[in-house]
Amino acid sequence: MRLFWIAVALLTFSAQANEPTPLDYAEFDACALASGETLAPCRIGYRTYGTLNAGQSNAVLVPTWHTGKTDAHVFLASPDVIDPERYFIIMVDALANGVSSSPSNHSKTSGSSFPTITIADMVDTQHRLLTEHLGIDSLHAVMGISMGGMQTFEWVVRYPDFADRAIAVIGSTRLPTFDIAFWTARIQTLKWFRDCDRCDDSRLAMQAMWMTALVPTKLGEEVSREQTMATIAERAAADTLTIAESWDIQRQAEAMNTHNVARDFDNDMTKAAARVSSDLLIIVGTDDRVVTPEPAKTFATLTGAALIEFDKDCGHGEPGCNAAAFNEAVRLFLRDGTDRPAASAR
Known about the structure:
It is built from twelve helices and eleven strands. It has about 350 residues and is an alpha/beta fold. The chain has a single domain, classed as Rossmann fold (3-Layer(aba) Sandwich). The chain has a nine-stranded mixed β-sheet with strand order 1-4-6-5-7-8-9-10-11, sandwiched between helices. A two-stranded antiparallel sheet has the order 2-3. The longest helix is centred in the middle third of the chain and has 19 residues.
């Protein structure tokens, strides 16, 4: 039930394999949530790479993708992408990812008792991590991939003066109908998975549904029609998802379903876009079947952001299939000066 093919594709971004730095935590007595509930206690995991300069002007925040953990994001801390010799990189584990406070690890509210969360809640806890725990009052940049891209969009609207630059990769400002249906179906399979106690049928259904997220032609290249059922069965048999982890996946999926950076602005995306003061780069995949690219593209128009569209029939894995171009775009955009990607690069 994880976005496993994304992680594989993303690992091709950097030719240099780094080891994750030690995991640190920010511990808060409580975190107020958008629902009105309180998460207490509240723990946020993070890793850092590089050194914060004297002026605190080189910090780059990287939030995690759906179910992703910071140790899987280490490839970004590379001269090829975000150079740790130049930047102080803070990779933060999003709420409900199994590292930060989550249904699978919370001491008081585990499983179904864990409150619903939002993308805004993730960003608010990251803001507290920076300002209250690390003493950082501004960012050179925030950059996220997939659900991390959703958090990036939330950052530039919710805290418009905090980051000088922002890079939202295969993310969304709010999910359209297709995406909501996509994630709702997966949430329902998670409920079935728990109700039947990890039964074979539920795991088969989850693997089959994840395969439908791939671009049809790409899927056909990887799995022949004759091997479709066998491949589904093999992936289901190899799946190690636990009941506890299923709640982590569900809470993050629910957060994506309700994500909407314009919710506090009469649901008017033009008003939300008017708040953005960060220099913004948006990267999408034209045939993405996990996060529909149109909302991000519309936001690029509204904000005048630089927009890069990748189209190699790789769906949600487009950045990995365009690794060299992706790496270069990120490096140039993070630099000072005017050497930025063209507004409509493909």
